[in-house]
Predict the structure.
Amino acid sequence: MQVIKMSFVLSLLYNCIGTFFAVTGHLEPVVAAILMPISSISIVLFTTLMTNRLVR
């Protein structure tokens, strides 16, 4: 449960920062399109690493 909560916080933080840059016009659509899959991959990687760390 702790890993899930940390993943949600990380995802929310990432999306809030990304939204800020997108709304203010500092983030080009191509960059946003590249960052979106990286965001998903980073959350999956974070969750996998934290789960493996806590299981051991």
Summary: The two ends are 16 Å apart (CA to CA). The helical segments are 2-23, 29-55.
